[in-house]
Amino acid sequence: MKSKNTKLREGDEVIVLSGKEKGKRGNIKTIVGEKCVINDLNLSKRHTRPNPQLGITGGIVEKEMPIHLSNVMIWNSSTKKQDKVSFKEEKGKKTRIFRSTGKDIK
């Protein structure tokens, strides 16, 4: 399922607003629907059984779990704060900008 959200994209640095990871920052790895997976955040432990035919060793594996997009905001590195995303259209090309400073997002 393709994401309808155009404000946040894969690779953006975001800060988590709520939950057990509140206040932590990371980069978006993937976006699926209304949720995103952030590198090294919201880790969950999964106990896996060994399967020699598939080459899977058993044990406890840590896996990154998705966080809802409403619980993250983009990080503005120039102001060192979270920020909202706005759009600016020039010559028929739509670009994302930080709402507080008006600067382009990479």
Number of helices: 0
Quaternary structure annotation = single chain
The topology string of helices and strands comes to: EEEEEEEEEE
Low-confidence segments, given as residue ranges, are none
Give a summary of the structure in a few sentences.
With about 110 residues, the protein is mainly beta. About 0% of the residues lie in helices and about 45% in strands. Strand 2 and strand 3 form a beta hairpin.
What is the topological layout?
Elements: E1 13-16, E2 25-32, E3 35-38, E4 43-48, E5 59-64, E6 67-68, E7 72-76, E8 81-83, E9 85-90, E10 93-98
Question: Overview of this structure, please?
Answer:
The protein is mainly beta and 106 residues long. The protein has a single domain (13-98), classed as SH3 type barrels (Roll), CATH 2.30.30.30. Helices cover 0% and strands 47% of the residues. The protein is built from no helices and ten strands. The strands form three sheets. It has a six-stranded antiparallel beta sheet, with no helix packed on it.
List keywords for this structure.
106 residues, mainly beta, SH3 type barrels, 6-stranded antiparallel beta sheet, two-stranded antiparallel sheet, 10 strands, 0% helix
